[in-house]
Write a structure and sequence with these properties.
Oligomer: heterodimer
Number of helices of chain B: 1
Radius of gyration of chain B: 21 Å
CATH class of the largest domain in chain A: Alpha Beta
Helix content of chain B: over 70%
Distance between the termini of chain A: 31 Å
Helix content of chain A: 25-40%
Strand content of chain A: 15-25%
Shape of chain A: globular
Largest sheet of chain A: 7 strands, mixed
Shape of chain B: rod-shaped
Number of domains of chain A: 3
Number of strands of chain B: 0
Number of strands of chain A: 16
CATH superfamily of the largest domain in chain A: Vaccinia Virus protein VP39
Number of helices of chain A: 16
CATH topology of the largest domain in chain A: Rossmann fold
Strand order of the largest sheet of chain A: 12-11-10-13-14-16-15
Largest sheet of chain B: none
Strand content of chain B: under 5%
Largest interface: A-B, 43 and 27 residues
CATH architecture of the largest domain in chain A: 3-Layer(aba) Sandwich
Radius of gyration of chain A: 24 Å
């Protein structure tokens, strides 16, 4: 029997923990949490959340295990193909995750329970929808008690969303530094003055930050209560506040994102055809589209039922992509905000609490369309480093080479010295040939671009 | 089982805003009922009138 390996992200909550066993994920529920878990199941809250697709379904597999001391149950949650983190989400992804958390809390209250935490890391996108993955987040609701998860909700959701909507969308990246959410005094200092005249933001962020500072280290009577409607009122107000926060990619009309290529409609259609043809040959079951923009090419894979992750470093492109997946209720496509020149590293305790993006999944096909010139020229990454990187990522690579003659590359070179003597099609083929065998190679009609299907060399 | 520190400031702030937001919430929840109560009262006072 192989060993149980406890997941390094699962240590804060004494109610239980996640572990891996023979490539499957399990959750141990500790005896101390038993009454809450029984209420969670017995009250019908769990089933109701499953019906709404707001929580990850699990099966109780206790019977198959010799329970260790202190254990109450072992459950096996449905697997999520790729775990993503809040700072890798676009504005609307984070907003939907926040609203899902509040909806879950409202439903829990109807069943006499409450969320005991409200970490954004407990929400994941699964089959196109945000849902709660922490089955042990509920406890019995003591009438009139303040919400334990309130501060965490403000730090993980409200503060970043307000900063993104009202100051700069890039401030969402503060979540990468502050693993337990953006400190409210920092959010308060960064938000524009007008937020002081908004009752909700004034209360939940500015006053909240001031109260934290003023009462730090002071104790509060344990039996303080806030009336029958207090908690419902706070949750309702948070929901209204979050719903009102808006962000639109600047200067779009969504359309401009689609029209950001310089080649003709004919070339664009031909490129789609070629990508589809090459992709069919790979028979891939998991695709990472790097530099996916709004996901036009990602959908070649995802619309065929292949789980696909669409990475882009532009918050606007990821936002447009997500809004499209939501509008069309797409199940197999997950857009994520990732800068390939600085992808998510290991974070948190011992750098292991949050896993580097490149260790979180294993695509068998990688798309790198209209990407190489950005990395090689704008970011000065040598072709050899690129080929090495792609070869470690997946078995198949569908890659586009755009030569210097192309106007997009000309634009990149317009105001700088051309130090890229090696940036030629021949050299590209030679370098990538060290890592890959070229299986297909075709010129995109009406352009100077070449599309390749490459297969990783056998070791 | 509450493993998070809710923070003293957070709790006190919740107590402060709960009074107002709770009242608002209760009013909103029961607004329909209050209105229909007065509507019924109103329509009872004028029996026989058309409900235009």
């Amino acid at each position: 029997m192989s060993e149980r390996v406890r997941l390094p992200a699962s240590f804060r909550d004494p109610s239980g923990f996640l572990f891996q066993h023979a490539d499957r994920l399990y959750r141990q529920i500790n005896a101390s949490y038993a009454p809450h878990y029984e209420e969670f199941i017995g009250s019908g809250l769990y089933q109701s959340l499953v019906d709404d697709k707001w929580i990850i379904p699990h099966s109780d597999v206790t019977a198959n295990w010799d329970l260790p001391e202190g254990a109450f149950k072992i459950i096996r949650p449905e697997m999520i193909p790729l775990i993503s983190y809040p700072f890798e989400w676009s504005f609307s992804q984070l907003k939907d995750a926040a609203l899902t958390t509040l909806r879950i809390q409202k439903k829990a209250m109807q069943f006499g329970m409450t969320l005991k935490d409200s970490s954004a890391y407990n929400i994941q996108f699964h089959r196109g929808h945000p849902l709660l993955i922490d089955t042990l987040s509920f406890e019995h609701l003591a009438q009139g008690k303040p919400w334990i998860g309130y501060r965490q909700f403000c730090q993980h959701f409200l503060a970043p969303l307000a900063l993104m909507a009202m100051r700069d969308v890039r401030l969402g990246m503060l979540l990468r530094t502050y693993i337990d959410g953006i400190p409210l005094d920092l959010a308060s200092a960064l938000l524009p003055l007008r937020t002081r005249f908004n009752f909700s933001l004034q209360s939940h962020i500015h006053l909240h930050a001031a109260a934290e500072k003023r009462f730090a280290g002071k104790s509060v009577k344990k039996n303080t209560t806030m009336g029958t409607y207090g908690l419902a009122g706070i949750i309702d107000n948070l929901e209204r506040t979050i719903k009102k926060l808006q962000w639109e990619p600047r200067g779009t009309a969504w359309g401009t994102y689609y029209a950001m290529h310089n080649y003709t409609e004919k070339a664009f259609e031909h490129k789609k055809e070629l990508v589809k043809k090459f992709f069919m040959e790979t028979k891939a079951t998991c695709v990472w589209d790097l530099g996916a923009n709004t996901g036009v090419f990602s959908r070649i894979a995802s619309e065929g039922g292949v789980p696909t992750i669409a990475f882009d470093m532009d918050p606007g492109a990821v936002e447009v992509n997500y809004l499209n997946t939501r509008a069309k209720d797409e199940t197999y496509l997950l857009p994520l905000l990732i800068d390939l020149t600085n992808p998510t590293p290991g974070l948190g305790w011992a750098n292991k609490e949050r896993t580097p993006i490149l260790d979180r999944g294993k695509p068998d096909a990688v798309f790198a369309l209209a990407l190489i010139h950005h990395l090689a020229i704008s970011h000065n990454v040598p072709l050899d480093n690129l080929a090495d990187f792609f070869s470690k990522l997946g078995h198949w690579l569908i890659v586009e080479f755009i030569p210097k003659e192309d106007s997009q590359v000309q634009k990149l070179l317009a105001h700088r010295e051309d130090i890229f003597d090696g940036y030629t099609r021949d050299h590209f083929e030679k370098i990538f040939g060290r890592y890959f065998k070229t299986r297909r190679k075709e010129t995109i009609a009406g352009s100077v671009r070449t599309l390749y299907l490459m297969e990783k060399n056998a070791k | 089982m509450a493993y998070l520190d809710p923070g003293s400031g957070s709790i006190l702030l919740q107590l402060l805003i709960a009074a107002l937001l709770g009242t608002l919430f209760a009013l909103r929840t029961y607004w329909g009922k209050i209105m229909s109560f007065f509507n019924k009262l109103f329509s009872r006072q004028k029996p026989g009138e058309d409900n235009e």
